[in-house]
Amino acid sequence: MHSLSSILALPEAAQTPVGSEVFFGLTSRPKTLSPWLFYDEAGSQLFEQITALPEYYPTRTEREIFARHADEIIAVATSGPPAPLTMIELGAGTAAKTTLLLEAAVRRQGKVDYLAIDVSESPLIAAKERIEREIPSVTITPRVADYTTGVADFPADGKRRMVLYIGSSIGNFEPAHAVTLLRDVRAHLSPGDRLLLGVDRVKDSSVLLPAYDDAAGVTEAFNKNVLVRINRELGGNFNTRLFRHRARWNESHSRIEMHLESLIRQQVTIQALDLEVKFVRGETIHTENSYKFTLEGVAGMLSRSGFGLDRCWTDEQGWFGVYLATAG
Fold first, then answer.
1. β-bridge partners, 308
2. CA distance readout (Å), 74 to 70, 91, 138, 194
3. Domains in the chain, CATH or no CATH each
4. Residue 292 · residue 203 · CB < 8 Å
5. Of 45, 163, 179, 277, which sits with the fewest C-beta atoms within 10 Å of its C-beta?
């Protein structure tokens, strides 16, 4: 725990969101960096490439679920007292998969309001341009925000709201933090509003590991891009060739871990933070967790967050699940 006086004594850059995360992450033991740092413009583009890789099944599998069940999902979400459905997406990106749900909502109610929230502006611009061109009955409002630090008010206007948190993004958070985030979402909803949660399920490591360590090296570039970002924004001198991407399956915690491993004993300087970071050979920076879930685990997480599970849709192999829940 750092005192207020010690924090205020840090360089100015260390008191910004990016600088603070880097300073405290790289001075902790073990060293860590939050996965939200991945998503500058270059990182967002790399992640879009990852979603199209043959090894990366989650995006493809979730899209197949939406393609098969979008009309049913929207029908269940709009059951009960009649009210127009507003859709709000956390971490929307380019909203490629969401298009299937938006089209189903338009078929059911003629038009739909869609609030797309993401930490990166460029994919939101692309999503807005494409959706306005392809589905003119959708009114899209992009919002650049880091929803992981607190959810801003959602528009209500007498409409029923459905928050989309898909892509298994919830798996990037420690279990307690995941519940905290979902509780924050619940606090901004009314009883009867909906949550659509997409999560990756537990499966054999022979399927999981290649999804996070692809043969083309795109995930490696995505992981190393956090070092490139530190160099650019904070004056770091990381040599990305002296680190390698590592993906591990941690069975006891039911999660894939991504690390950047130092190949040599080295010292890195980050000028804006007035910081020198020492690495021994083999030491890693833990950059991401991706938790995998069982049905019981999802139901328990939703219950602790103030939601009741209504329905679940999955693919034929049972690799991925989309869960519709109602705010209690």
1. 326
2. 6, 20, 15, 11
3. 4-32+220-291 (no CATH), 57-203+297-327 (3.40.50.150)
4. yes
5. 45
Inter-residue long-range contacts of 126-131, CB under 8 Å, 24+ positions, other chains counted: 126/94, 127/92, 127/93, 127/94, 127/95, 130/94, 130/95, 130/99, 131/95, 131/99, 131/102
User: Distance between CA 310 and CA 312 in Å, rounded?
Assistant: 7
Residue range 79-93: mean pLDDT, rounded: 90
For the stretch 275-299, pLDDT in tens is: 999 999 999 999 999 999 999 999 9
When pLDDT is cut at 50, 70 and 90, the band that residue 4 belongs to is: very low
Contacts of 264 (CB under 8 A, 6+ apart): 242, 279, 281
Neighbour-count burial for 294-326, b at 16+ CB within 10 Å, e otherwise: eeebbbebbeebbbebeeebbbeeebbbbbbbb
pLDDT tens readout for residues 218-250: 999 999 999 999 999 999 999 999 999 999 999
Q: How far is CA 325 from CA 185, 305, 315, in A?
A: 12, 11, 19
Stated pTM of the model: 0.90
Residues shown for the chain: 328
